[in-house]
Amino acid sequence: MKVSVILPTYNEAGNIVDLIAAIKIQIPAVWDYEIIVVDDNSRDGTFDLARKTCADDPKVNAILRSGEPSLGGSIRTGIDAATGDYLLVMDTDFTHRPEEIPGMLHVVQIADLVSGSRFCPGGNMADSTHYVASFLYNLFVRFVIRTQIQDNLGGFWVADAALIRRLPLEEIFFGYGDYYIRLLHFAQYAGMKLIELPSQYCQRNSGKSKSNFFNLLFRYSGMVLNLAWRNSGKKFAATTGKPTPVLARRFAR
After folding, report:
1. How many other CB atoms sit within 10 Å of the CB of residue 98?
2. Confidence of residue 130 (pLDDT cuts 50, 70, 90)
3. Could you give the domains of the chain?
């Protein structure tokens, strides 16, 4: 089995080299892997550092993305370049812990998509204010689009690559963190089996956050309401060959 680790970056020169090294340590020996760094034309030299890091390592690939910066767009670029049986996506500032990769790769073998969740028993987040705000916003998302997924904004996930590619990628992978709400939503409606694992989200190692959390939540709300409106008017076509929606299950360690 092979996993493609997709690392979308923007101004992460202080983190990317150490993160690549940490991921390599955590990939179980029974897995083949590749690491794909997709840089959104950073101004701090992130791409050059990543390219230098992978110069003598065929398992690491750095891609420079041009055009309008977009977290979702960067991940889509990584998906298009990936050759693995599974896709693993995580933030590049160490808020997502590489130590959790082995557990996620183990569980995904009995699921279609595994999502790291701050709100499952055992999950948590270092920033308590952000944690509470995210928890309350997830209650809103769950109520509006009728999902049992507890963490729709986490962005730490691993999934069967073939099933992800059967989803309407152009309707999912754009914008910023809102892409993840859409990904989980479309995955459920395609009948994919989703499992949430408890995850500990940390403070970023280096650099500054690129977003205003509360402004983003306000912008995401329109998208969530639009998804709810679409649900009320029609059923999505099941593109994975499994038409019955499957709700997430939660595993506590």
Report:
1. 19
2. confident
3. 2-250 (3.90.550.10)
End-to-end CA distance of the chain: 24
Phi-psi category of residue 109: left, alpha or beta, with phi > 0 → left and psi -120 to 50 → alpha: alpha
Cα dihedral across residues 115, 120, 123, 129: positive or negative: positive
Residue type, 196: E
* Nearby residues of 136 by Cβ (< 8 Å), 6 or more positions away: none
Q: Is residue 97 a contact partner of residue 18, using CB atoms and an 8 Å limit?
A: no
The pLDDT of residue 245: 35
State the chain's maximal CA–CA distance in angstroms.
Answer: 53
54-62 — which CB contacts under 8 Å span 24+ positions?
Answer: 54/20, 59/24, 59/33, 59/34, 59/35, 60/20, 60/34, 60/35, 61/34, 61/35, 61/36, 61/37, 62/37
Overall residue count recorded for the chain in this entry = 253
53: pLDDT confidence band, cut at 50, 70 and 90?
confident
**Contact criterion met (CB below 8 Å) for 56 and 82:** no
Structure token pair of residue 131: 């944690």
